[in-house]
Amino acid sequence: MTEEPPPPQSEGAPTRPRQVSPAAVTTALLAIVLAALTVRWYVGLEAPCYWSDFNYYEWATRFSISQLGQSPLTYPILLLTSVSLQHNLYFTVPLVPLMAVLGGDRAAFVTSIALVYFLPLALAVALLANRLSGDAPNGASKAPVSATIKSFAVALLIPVLWAPTLRGYPDSGAALLLLITLLLYFDGRSFASARRGALIGFLLALTVLLRRYMAFAGVSLVVCIAVDQILASRRSAAGTPTKTRIKTMLALIGGGAAGMVCLGFPFLLNLTRLNLGVLYESYHVSPAASVAYFFSCFGLITLALAAAGLLLTWRHSPQSRDQLLFTVAFYVIAQCLWILIPGELGTHYTLYFSPLVTLGVVLFYKAMSKNVAALAATTLFLAFNLFCSLAPAKTTEQLGLKLFRPGMLSFADQEGAGPALLLSAAYPPNVRGDVDRLKLIVNQLRAHYEEAAQPGQAADSENFFAKRGHVGVIGCSNVLNHEILRNVERSIYGLNKDKIDWLELPVVDSKDSYPLERLLACQYVVVPSVNQYFIAPAGQSIMAGSKACFDEKWPLANDFKLLPGALTIDDGVTVSVYERTRATTAATAALTLTRMKAFTPQEPGSQPNWITTGRMSQICYDKKRNQWEFKPELYRPGFFCEEDRYLLYSHDLPASFSLSGKLDSTPGVPPTILRAQLLGADGQLLQQVDLGQTKEGVRAFDFIHDFGQVPMTGAAAPKYLVIVIDLAPQAMAPGTTITISDLKLEARH
After folding, report:
1. pLDDT tens digits along 560-617
2. What is the mean pLDDT of the segment spanning 6-18?
3. Rounded CA gap, 256 and 272, in Å?
4. Calculated CA dihedral for residues 123, 126, 131, 135, nearest 10 degrees
5. Closest C-alpha to 329, from 225, 473, 468, 447
6. What value does the CA radius of gyration of the chain take, rounded to a whole number of Å?
7. C-alpha distance from residue 65 to each of 5, 79, 86, 108 (Å)
8. Are strands 567-568 and 470-473 parallel, antiparallel or unpaired?
């Protein structure tokens, strides 16, 4: 006769501490060692040139470590203010101590992610599987240790779950928080505790702050909780009173709001300032393409095993059907929201679906626990699948497998074919075969910067965006972009010892701006023989326009010369370098802008009103900029001689308009004249007006001027407006700045 299981404890009831199982400790240590060895093996096979998010999080964590060491008292303030950035530093907090111990290289960073985020995520999937399979009907932690160990081991065999971590993404942390929140809700599904509701809301807010794209999953979970509670209140009048459920739901919403306000207020301000849906429109792919992508990532057999596991659990565990239905509904709704609204692709976005697929595979193991042959065959397949997915590309090619290989975002580096469709996507170690040629490109450019008047650590300079003489790289792909070349330079000369002013050029139509402003700041431009895309070409016409500028000899290209010695890098891409021979005049810039507008179907999403040769605008999210700063001392004489300092209006001019604003200058700026020029369609000067002048004792002035139609004989109306700063640079004192602000151009009727 078996003992009657103890009744479930009510929420808040004291629990007796459980003894730590030696098997659990052994499993934890073994998992840590195996994860660390897997990461070391994987990273050790790489010969990469990482870029963008693949590289950012590693550098952000290093920065967080250095800032904590330099100023531990102000470190919390740094974390809070980082929320205003595109990617904040909250994810670095648990990584900092471990990475500080393991070392500062990439292997240490990826190992830290694996130990802090990935392994707990796999464990959370195992705990959820225990609950849904009936191994732990009264709580996720109540299952036998052996059942948890088996579930945990199976979860570690899913390569798509590994992929974001091995690629250097900390996104498993957000997926982990989401699963913890789900388990927390299941443990208090009676919804009688407002404190638990507030905690759930707070964790959801933290999930979004860790990775903002998880907001759709957070919305999905809140909707599922609300529907679940409505159905529960209708089913049982003897359960938790409806008023209590409502109170708990309000506490959940309040906890989320409090967490977002306290930890993410700058993030909320950005949401009111930016239309992220419009800005990221170029990244969007069709629902059919999204579904095909996610199916290809997991492979048909893994998806079939997951579906079978969910169905078998539904059949054999009737006591947990409602929780299983809740879980599936939550992940499916979240995935549908992601596919239908952002519609973006990427290795890290698979975390919307991979926990559910992993859960299904784990449940399949549990359902087939007595079928030794089926379990053995499944284990062999999963082990083979994991090996093929993470092995070097040459290994799977030798096996005759053409696996689907996801690209950075919407592009696949390789489409799967034949039997490979049964397997998961390939996430091989990042290996390049052209590093020697990339180094030649870097060294050719670095020779000029080592002799420059103000060399050194351009990326760390607070005046970086006010400088002239940058190196622009036309291209944004896994083959070529400015970050790849910058990291090659660092690999040669050491971290923080780069001297080349690598400049990011705009690439994405929906969120960036015309490339003219940045090309005006370039002394060198690296141009590939083939456009280098990372999303659909239609979404990157402004990048293609940068290349067309040099290929088709647009007016700006005449200010450059082609250097000898083009080199061929990976994918057969030939790279040429152009060197500036003279500064670009306002008229040339205006004519080039006309070509860019004609080349790009729609105005880029973040195009500011004025294109400047001073401190550059951000290429995205800077549409409402209203202050322009010039630091003439940073214009390197060896690169730009007597360069014009001007602002070019980027929109069409009204027939009649007023122009107003303010000029301010710091001490040491010589007398300065501010002029407005109207140019015709062919760049000729039609009208020039002095807007104001500084003199001794007067460093600032306001200006306003009304412009009407300029009388002309047989010529078109003015097409361009330029504001020119006229000063004597040789009389400039160090550290001087000229600022133009509150610029308004208003049509007159």
Report:
1. 999 999 999 999 999 999 999 988 999 999 999 999 999 998 899 999 999 999 999 9
2. 48
3. 18
4. -120
5. 225
6. 30
7. 49, 12, 19, 13
8. unpaired
